[in-house]
Amino acid sequence: MTPFLDIQNIKKTYGATVAVQDVTLGIGRGEFVTFLGPSGSGKSTTLYVIAGFLDPTEGDVRIQGQSILSVPSHKRNIGMVFQRYTLFPHLTVAENVAFPLRVRRRPNDEIERKVAEMVRLARLETVRDRLPSQLSGGQQQRVALARALVYDPPVLLMDEPLSALDKKLREEIQYEIRRIHQETGVTILYVTHDQEEALRLSDRIAVFSQGRIDQIGTSAELYQNPATRFVAGFVGNSDFLSCRIDRVEGHSARIVLPDGACVSGVRSHGTVRAGSEGTLMLRPERVRIRNAASNTTPSENGAAGLSVTIRDITFLGDNTHFAVETDWKQPMAIRVPFGRAGAEGLAVGDRARVDWVAEDAHVFAESANG
Amino acid sequence: MLLDFDRLGGLKWVLVGIGILVSAFLLLPILFTVALSFGSSQWLLFPPPGWTLRWYEELWADPRWITSTLTSLQCAVLVTLLATGLGLLASFGLVRGRFAGRETVRALFLMPMIMPVIVVAVALYAFFLRIGLGGTLIGFVLAHTVIALPLAITSISNALERFDKAIEDAAILCGASPWEARLRVTIPAIRDGLFGAAVFSFLTSWDEVVIAIFMASPTLQTLPVHIWGTLRQDLTPVVAAASSLLLLFTLAVMLLAAWFRRRST
């Protein structure tokens, strides 16, 4: 089955500079997909190609099997919410929302009905007759959202719409966006550099890095099974340790840490080759820490570990944060949930032992980007 | 603030005194002219021995004053339309355009503002004589547009630069064609700049005298030219009356502009 919105092999170059390449992605009707990546990674460029503000050097964009590249922006019938505030300054909230219907020459009673519906959906009843300059940033973006949805576009593009808002307001509007997505069933393509926002909103996330998509998947897939070191570092917190790859069998590798410790059963990703340098990745909450002196707990099946020195301990309520250093001076962060046994009595400066279940460890080739 | 008016102590009153003196120096001659226009002395005596409306009656009875006023109005309105329209188009080009030589073009557009008016006047005079535009209304309008355009462009360009292009893009994605987006969104959004351009253009033409003297013919004169001509022939209080009316009109335009500006914000 062909996807509802089909992005095929998009490439955009400016002279010798490649802004995006090999961007291929199929999006189902009603799906909420986020482009996540640092600035300059090509996510906004891809969005602007879909909006029609940029022509791709190569590739195609299809909606329901029809290419939209030859259709000018104003006839694409796509909704968009911009990063900056883009309300029409001389029109009231209601007139801003009505604008797309007015340029489509819809009858007045239909305009009135649709605007009322959108004003209610975006909870703008109390401000409907105000001018944009009399609204807060959050209200302005909610009006922009209502304006982009009033003509029932098949696809809604959102280009970092909340980046100008403070954290609390951002969370509030993220919730609103989710609710509106569920109520309208519109297909949403959302761009952000904020991983928390991506995790909170999306059905699927496409992680962009240096003009390419590194990985596409659900939040859980990206977190549990990152395809590249970049994805591992960008989605969730990670500890990275340099290592040497000793042996690779399928997707399982044996690695050697700088102190000579051997760890087998590590999950390998990408083009990991035996004998090359690699990076070991661990999630801070999957690593356990205990007193080196106690030495009572036998390693569980497949568990691996190393000795560290504790540099800092921060109690954060539901968990405690340990900043430690390996014997070869690489920093690591470890998060211990409140109440988990083993970490009692540890103090700054102590020697400690950290370990993890082998399958929680991932190894990436050193040369992989990031 | 480095200089706080309230903390200046005794110096404060010195400043107030200087302020009053400067204002008086600038404003008194104008008040003086207005007073003379109502004075009964034919020799512009001050203080006037009596008060009269006679000079205004004479002004009203002389068709040359009426025609020159109408010429001025006609010219100023045409200049306003032309300079604002051209200024809008030029501003779009200068602000949005990406072409080689853009800064040079901008400098050329603004040139008449820094050139001495007399130089512009002589040059235009020589040129217009040659192509048969001297002494015509079109000649007046074109010459005044040349000096009004830099003001119009400055005012509109500033407004256009403050206007975020993304708003126009948003209008286009909402379904408006690029032209419709400019007409329905961009132009209304920069209306303050357009209005400023119109007011400046109007006033530039309305009280311009140097170029107008060169452009004028015995049969076609603007009000400032006629005032100037009358003043050189005989020093009659009618000139004071005409000046007072000119002043009143200019004041009215400025107040209207201020009122519009306040209403739009």
UniProtKB/TrEMBL annotation, chain A:
Keywords: ATP-binding, Cell inner membrane, Cell membrane, Membrane, Nucleotide-binding, Translocase, Transport. GO terms for cellular component: ATP-binding cassette (ABC) transporter complex. InterPro entries: AAA+_ATPase, ABC_SmlMolc_Importer, ABC_transporter-like_ATP-bd, ABC_transporter-like_CS, Mo/tungstate-bd_C_term_dom, P-loop_NTPase, Transp-assoc_OB_typ2. GO terms for biological process: quaternary ammonium group transport. One of its GO terms (molecular function) is ATP hydrolysis activity. Gene3D superfamilies: 2.40.50.100, P-loop containing nucleotide triphosphate hydrolases (3.40.50.300). Residues 5-235 form the ABC transporter domain. It holds the Pfam family ABC_tran. PANTHER family: SPERMIDINE/PUTRESCINE IMPORT ATP-BINDING PROTEIN POTA, THIAMINE IMPORT ATP-BINDING PROTEIN THIQ. This is ABC transporter ATP-binding protein. It comes from Azospirillum griseum.
UniProtKB/TrEMBL annotation, chain B:
SUPFAM superfamilies: MetI-like (SSF161098). Its main location: membrane. One of its GO terms (biological process) is transmembrane transport. It is found in: Cell inner membrane; Cell membrane. It comes from the Bacteria. InterPro entries: MetI-like, MetI-like_sf. GO terms for cellular component: plasma membrane. The chain crosses the membrane at residues 12-45, 65-95, 107-128, 134-153, 194-215, 235-260. Keywords: Cell inner membrane, Cell membrane, Membrane, Transmembrane, Transmembrane helix, Transport. It is a multi-pass membrane protein. Residues 69-257 form the ABC transmembrane type-1 domain. Belongs to the binding-protein-dependent transport system permease family. This is ABC transporter permease. It comes from Azospirillum griseum.
